[in-house]
Amino acid sequence: MKILYAYRYGIIGGVSTQLLLRQQALEVVGHKVCLFFSQDNGLGQVVSGSNRILFGSETSFRKLVRNGQFDAVIVIDSPELLPAASGSLFRQNPVYLDVHTTTDTGLGYLQDLDVRHLTGIMVPTKYSARLVSDRLERDLSDIEIVPNILNTEVFSSKPLDNVRDATESVREFVWVGKLDSHKNWRLALVYAGMLRDIFGDIRMHMVGGYTAPPETAREFFGLAFKLGLSACVNWLDRIENNAVAGLYRRCAESGGAMLVTSRDESFGMAAAEALLCGCPLIANDLPVFHEVFPSSPLVHLVDIWNPETVAQAANEVAELQRTDELVGQLHSELQDRYGPEAFASKFLDLLKTLGSV
Amino acid sequence: MMSKWDVYLIRVLRSDIDAKESELEALRHSLRYRVGGWVIESWPPGRRTMVIVARIFAVFLKLSWRKNAIGRGKRVQSCQADAIAEGEFVQLVIFGTQANAESLGRDAFCSDDPVALIQLLDRERPPGTLVVRRTNEAIVRRISRLRLNGWKVVWQPEEGINEIDAHLVAYLESHADECVGSTS
After folding, report:
1. Is B1 exposed, middle or buried (0-12, 13-18, 19+ CB in 10 A)?
2. Which ipTM was obtained for this model?
3. Minimal CA separation from B167 to chain A, in Å
4. Which helix (H) or strand (E) holds A53?
5. Sign of CA dihedral A268, A269, A272, A274
6. Least CB-CB distance to B5: which of A181, A224, A308?
């Protein structure tokens, strides 16, 4: 089969990471997968050299779908690409919409979208399915759930090269996200201060924010200074997967955790990756996390606006006996649900059911 | 009497207020909001309307020019950093000025232009030493990543420099491998 995924933002982030994993998962089972991005916001530098990852304008997209003879074209949250996606009149590509955003603003395009010409609509979670069906005023059964893929090889409690990760002598915590209101980075800094007051010297690794505007970066340093955290906070604006997996393992070994302060999440990729590495989670009690994460002593879902509950979770994490069995069991469960095989199986069944194959 | 949790709760709520204010500021400065304001100001039609129409036309021209400039692949900044190829080892990178510029070897790069330095530092290359002599958020936000990748970071403030950001200095002093002649 020949498949095309199309998305607007060629940025190093959750969706592009997901697309690269999907491409790999489907190619392993013998299918050809192209990725198209109508903007290059930095991803091009990282994936240069691949002829199956393309960047271009809407015009080049139109040409691609006309000539590509795809068995399926999946457009992710980029409504401007949908009209052209079916290609030529004489040989129409089946077109699917894949909705990954869960913010009100992000989902706004669904209100005016005519979905009658789409072969199917898919989302990564039941939570997303409810949001999409409300906005499209369609039955839930019309929305297919195709799970995200987790990179269970890189994200594991054992390093790939078997070299033990270097550790500091302090308790380490990690937060991952853009420096925006949605991910709630300011709250993460406030809690870094609280964790420092509880445990003494800590390290809070803030991962992400490579594209944060200068004024946001200045605000970040300003708030860290105001809270007396300039020495505790470690801003890693960009980091490779292997290194971030090492960071998760270090946080786990030190008795720390990943902190998730997001107001909402569509899946929680970073959080799931941290769990795969055995790193406990202290996360905002979001509906999607109940769906995505198995129940485990490593997972603490709390009212993120209540400092007392966050502090209680941090103390529980500090006392947690992280056994290989506990960590391994969670890794296994996540792999069963979100490994490449689970995605490929569900995705290809869907295409078969809806007549693309 | 306030409990210790109340203190944190106040900070939590304040962080939320700051987030919402930041969003509001971004909205106020957004083009859509500003143009909407002009449209309201231009009614009922009068002399003011002509001013507004001219302003909207100017914005349209500016956006078209910017879009075309990006489309032509126009370089915003050409810089010496381009001469240093990706993957090439640069032993010493200095942000700011170097007293003895002539003594810099061929494998050294010195600039007070943060854009030039970012172009150099963000490319894949073997780690060297970064000497930070001035404060700039674009450079400081990268130092932890550079250190993780094996770079040595030295904070050596220039003498007599007036524009020093205390917040950035605090971060630099905590995270640099070495502080030479620090202001604190």
Report:
1. exposed
2. 0.87
3. 5
4. strand A53-55
5. negative
6. A308
Report how far apart the first and last C-alpha atoms of chain B are (Å, whole number): 37
B15: which 2 tokens?
A: 């962080």
**Contact flag A307-B171 (C-beta cutoff 8 Å):** no
Question: What would the DSSP string read from start to end of B52-85?
Answer: HHHHHHHHHHHHHHHHHHHHTT--S---GGGGSP
User: Is B19 close to A234, i.e. CB distance below 8 A?
Assistant: no
**A217 lies within 8 A of chain B by CB:** yes
The structure's pTM equals 0.86
Burial A287-316 (b: 16+ CB within 10 A, else e): ebbebbbeebebbbbbebbebbbbbebbee
A261: closest CA among A322, A331, A206, A221?
Answer: A206
CA-based nearest distance B177→chain A, Å: 13
Q: Which helix (H) or strand (E) holds A205?
A: strand A202-207
Place of tokens 């996200």: A177
pLDDT in tens, B82-109: 666 666 778 899 999 875 555 566 678 8
Q: What does each C-alpha distance from A155 to A150, A203, A234, A339 come to in angstroms?
A: 8, 21, 21, 12
Contact A305 B167 (CB under 8 A): no
CA distance A68 to B96: 51
CB contact under 8 A, B166 and A305: no
Q: Is the pLDDT of residue B78 over 60?
A: no
CA angle A125-A270-A31, nearest 5°? 60
Mean residue pLDDT across chain A: 92
CA distance A108 to A115: 14
In A, which residues are within 8 Å of B11 by CB distance? 190, 193, 227
